[in-house]
Recover the amino acids of this structure.
């Protein structure tokens, strides 16, 4: 623990606890963060510079901010990366790309791509946002050191969604509301979909009117339907007695994270909030709040006033779920051993529930005969066994995961978790393992690249190869082999091959200084040609 700022082993276990799920499978929390901290190359990098900022991280929000800051700083300090890439207020640096006055926004309205200038070709192109940022990050020293799971997460899960929201203008016909209409945001009649919320149509909204100080924050589309909603706690206090306005976890139509970003960004722009629950990975964690500048609030201990009697209506709580009945306060951390837990679908503190003999499908928000344990964004949910269309079976772990969290490996034709996938710079595809990537790359090279027989390697450009004559002593003849131009230059410099009459040979006849098997007639012709050339040059 010398290079990490965990208070003790108990804190480490709390952050990276292995949780046992209903199907018996064991899953580790914050798996991406743990892979980041276990990165041996990163540790060596930090030790060499005596700067452990990249290792002093305890939550996903902090990982996002620190990693991106480090990539930008690394690029700025690298003289080999002279070109500015300006995206959403940040400046990255590249040797092959730059952004122009459009700052990445495509003229054709493509919200998923970035407009850039290819410096080698001096032309404007566009590229998918996640792929583009990945290419820029991997040009920097820090980007090359970060683990592939972190790079994939930053580029795909985080940046691609931020870029889409940014280019969409954050509103795009959406209308923001902040009021006390809690009933509307929990009634499917007013919403477009069920928002994957266990409280939809459960008549629990009175909790926010009677027991806590909060507002309903939501977006309406052009049809007047609610497409994104969250609870805004207006009077939150931390351990330093600082006041906050915190936005709880966001719920949207179809679990669309773009809509979540839109809601958050609009609330920030109009000055309604001081912090919000992180979008994406770890959003179900009680302490996963960030400031409006993106800074982690992981170490903040928040509390709210909560006047909840035993028979009062309770609504499921994502964050302020530890309730002190005597103090009438709810916390986002375990406050005492006597706390009531509010992350429950019980109707009240007495444990009363809405009786039903049917199973509840959390994903489709309906009752069904039987459910299957599935996972979405690392969170365990129950899904109708007859409606698993949006989930993929991962044979390596024997679990069903939401399709947005998986990658299809074209090589072995199976699904794997996005965080476990590996990316090929050659095929520009993701694969489930190193072996599949290697096999796919070899196949790709055999189809589209060119083989150097001398180097025993593949090269993308045929113009990079030439031929060399290799003398076979047994057959008393030269055999032509393909060879890379860089290898030719090296061998010439080392005196290991010779160039004769614009052809390359690994050896010549020591008696004549000419290639073996050069006939007398060829020798005479060669001498006459060179004698003529010498005379002509002299004249």
């Amino acid at each position: 623990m010398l290079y990490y700022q965990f208070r003790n082993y108990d804190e480490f276990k709390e952050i990276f606890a292995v949780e046992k799920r209903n199907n018996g499978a064991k899953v580790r929390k914050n798996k991406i963060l743990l892979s980041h901290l276990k990165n041996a190359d990163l540790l060596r990098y930090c030790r060499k510079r005596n700067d452990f900022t990249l290792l002093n991280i305890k939550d996903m929000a902090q990982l996002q901010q620190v990693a991106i800051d480090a990539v930008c700083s690394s690029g700025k300090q690298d003289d080999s990366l002279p070109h500015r890439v300006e995206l959403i207020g940040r400046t990255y640096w590249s040797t092959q790309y730059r952004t122009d006055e459009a700052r990445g926004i495509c003229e054709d309205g493509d919200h998923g791509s970035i407009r850039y200038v290819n410096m080698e070709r001096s032309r404007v192109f566009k590229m998918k946002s996640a792929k583009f940022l990945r290419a820029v990050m991997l040009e920097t020293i820090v980007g090359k050191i970060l683990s592939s799971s972190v790079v994939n997460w930053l580029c795909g899960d985080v940046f691609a969604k931020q870029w889409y929201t940014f280019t969409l203008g954050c509103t795009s016909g959406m209308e923001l509301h902040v009021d006390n209409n809690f009933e509307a945001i929990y009634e499917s009649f007013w919403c477009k979909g069920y928002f994957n919320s266990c409280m939809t149509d459960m008549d629990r909204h009175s909790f926010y009117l009677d027991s806590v100080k909060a507002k309903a924050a939501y977006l309406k589309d052009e049809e007047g339907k609610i497409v994104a909603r969250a609870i805004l706690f207006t009077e939150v206090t931390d351990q330093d007695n600082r006041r906050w306005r915190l936005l709880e976890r966001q719920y949207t139509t179809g679990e669309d994270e773009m809509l979540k970003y839109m809601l958050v960004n609009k609330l920030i722009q109009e000055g309604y909030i001081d912090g919000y629950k992180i979008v994406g990975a770890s959003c179900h964690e009680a302490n996963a709040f960030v400031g409006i500048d993106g800074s982690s609030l992981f170490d903040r201990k928040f509390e709210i006033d909560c006047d909840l009697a035993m028979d009062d209506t309770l609504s499921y709580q994502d964050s302020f779920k530890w309730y002190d009945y005597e103090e009438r306060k709810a916390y986002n951390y375990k406050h005492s051993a006597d706390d009531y837990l509010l992350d429950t679908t019980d109707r009240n503190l007495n444990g009363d529930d809405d009786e039903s003999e049917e199973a509840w499908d959390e994903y489709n928000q309906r009752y069904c005969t039987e459910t299957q344990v599935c996972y979405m964004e690392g969170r365990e949910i129950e899904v109708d066994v007859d409606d698993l269309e949006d989930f993929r079976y991962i044979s390596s772990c024997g679990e069903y995961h939401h399709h947005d969290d998986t990658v299809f490996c074209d090589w072995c034709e199976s699904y794997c978790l996005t965080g476990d996938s590996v990316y090929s710079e050659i095929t520009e595809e993701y694969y489930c393992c190193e072996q599949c990537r290697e096999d796919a790359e070899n196949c790709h090279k055999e189809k589209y690249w060119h083989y150097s027989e001398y180097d025993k390697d593949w090269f993308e450009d045929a113009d990079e190869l030439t031929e060399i004559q290799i003398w076979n002593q047994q057959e008393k003849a030269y055999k032509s082999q393909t060879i890379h131009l860089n290898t030719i230059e090296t061998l010439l410099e080392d005196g290991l091959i010779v160039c004769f009459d614009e052809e390359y040979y690994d050896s010549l006849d020591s008696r004549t200084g000419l290639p073996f098997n050069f006939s007398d007639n060829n020798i005479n012709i060669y001498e006459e040609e060179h004698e003529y050339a010498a005379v002509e040059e002299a004249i």
